[in-house]
């Protein structure tokens, strides 16, 4: 049974959790984190974003030194960009999957070495997605390096891919016609596993990779018992870390299925839910 002050580490998701719907962090959340860090809690960002998508200035301001990125495929020390752990899809595998996915009307993000790339041909698909908030669209448009021939780029780099994220334009009936087709393609590759990170997207990494595994590795590195950690999130890619941590906290804006699997529920991301969670548990 956990009590207040029994946690040494808190892992926070970004989009939909620490960030409000304008992709900003409230002063209430900032103040609560600073106070808890002053009292001795280690904070970690746990996100589907790559290293290049981390709010580095904010992390420096708050005193957050570690990040589990790309759903656990890479764990970094910040701001050195020191990669502590990494598991990538081999370039050959990533190319095979990518060439099939590029036949669909989707937007694809690829994360290599902590940096973000997108095939040039996918830009129009991103602009046409109605369900993505403007702040997320802007973030994607401004932080991705656009590549004309992505398979050729991967062949040239010969580098592994940490993660790929797929976003889908809506059909006329507001369904996502190419989402099912993308799942059929990914189902042919048992080496990778996929889930939803929000906004009806699909995100995939090597099978066995998760934010929870990233947390376990980081806890070993920091010599902290995973039982003395809590994790807070709002989407399917947070479930594994919420289960792995000593306490899993869901945001009130999380889908009902996520809330039902959490140990506790805090306020929404527009009501300073992270601050409320910190006040209750830390």
Summary of the model, kept short:
This protein is α/β, with parallel strands linked by helices and 282 residues long.
Describe this structure in words.
This protein has helices at residues 14-18, 27-38, 56-62, 91-101, 123-127, 134-143, 150-157, 177-187, 211-222, 239-244, 256-261, 273-281, and strands at residues 9-12, 42-46, 66-69, 74-77, 82-86, 107-112, 115-119, 145-147, 163-167, 192-195, 202-206, 229-233, 247-250, 264-265. Helices cover 36% and strands 22% of the residues. It has 2 domains: 9-86 and 209-281, HAD superfamily/HAD-like (Rossmann fold, 3-Layer(aba) Sandwich), CATH 3.40.50; 91-206, Hypothetical Protein, Haloacid Dehalogenase-like Hydrolase, Chain: A, domain 2 (2-Layer Sandwich).
What tags apply to this protein structure?
282 residues; eight-stranded mixed sheet; 2 domains; alpha/beta; Hypothetical Protein, Haloacid Dehalogenase-like Hydrolase, Chain: A, domain 2; 12 helices; six-stranded mixed sheet; Rossmann fold; 22% strand
Write the SSE topology.
Elements: E1 9-12, H1 14-18, H2 27-38, E2 42-46, H3 56-62, E3 66-69, E4 74-77, E5 82-86, H4 91-101, E6 107-112, E7 115-119, H5 123-127, H6 134-143, E8 145-147, H7 150-157, E9 163-167, H8 177-187, E10 192-195, E11 202-206, H9 211-222, E12 229-233, H10 239-244, E13 247-250, H11 256-261, E14 264-265, H12 273-281
Parallel strand pairs: 1-2, 1-12, 2-3, 7-8, 12-13, 13-14
Antiparallel strand pairs: 3-4, 4-5, 6-7, 6-9, 9-11, 10-11
Helix pairs in contact: 2-12, 4-7
């Amino acid at each position: 049974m956990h009590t207040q002050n029994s946690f040494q580490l808190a892992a926070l998701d970004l989009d939909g959790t620490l960030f409000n719907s304008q992709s900003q962090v409230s002063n209430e959340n900032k103040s609560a984190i600073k106070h808890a860090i002053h009292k001795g809690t280690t904070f970690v960002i746990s996100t589907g974003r790559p290293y290049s998508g981390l709010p580095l200035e904010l992390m420096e301001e708050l005193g957050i030194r570690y990040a589990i990125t790309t759903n656990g495929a890479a764990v970094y020390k910040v701001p050195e960009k020191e990669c502590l752990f990494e598991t990538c899809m081999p370039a050959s595998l990533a190319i095979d999957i990518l060439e099939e996915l590029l036949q669909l009307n989707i937007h694809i993000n690829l994360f290599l070495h902590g940096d973000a790339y997108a095939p040039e041909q996918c830009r129009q698909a991103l602009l046409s997605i109605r369900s993505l908030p403007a702040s997320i669209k802007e973030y994607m448009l401004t932080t991705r390096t656009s590549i004309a021939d992505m398979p050729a780029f991967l062949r040239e780099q010969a580098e592994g891919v940490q993660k790929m994220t797929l976003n889908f334009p809506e059909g006329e009936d507001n369904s996502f016609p190419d989402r099912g087709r993308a799942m059929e393609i990914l189902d042919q590759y048992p080496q990778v596993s996929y889930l939803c990170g929000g906004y009806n997207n699909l995100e995939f990494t090597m099978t066995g990779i998760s934010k929870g595994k990233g947390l376990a590795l980081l806890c070993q590195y920091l010599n902290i018992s995973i039982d003395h950690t809590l994790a807070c999130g709002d989407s399917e890619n947070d479930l594994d870390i919420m289960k792995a941590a000593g306490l899993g906290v869901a945001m009130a804006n999380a889908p009902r299925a996520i809330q039902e699997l959490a140990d506790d529920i805090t306020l929404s991301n527009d009501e300073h839910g992270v601050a409320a969670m910190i006040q209750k548990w830390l």
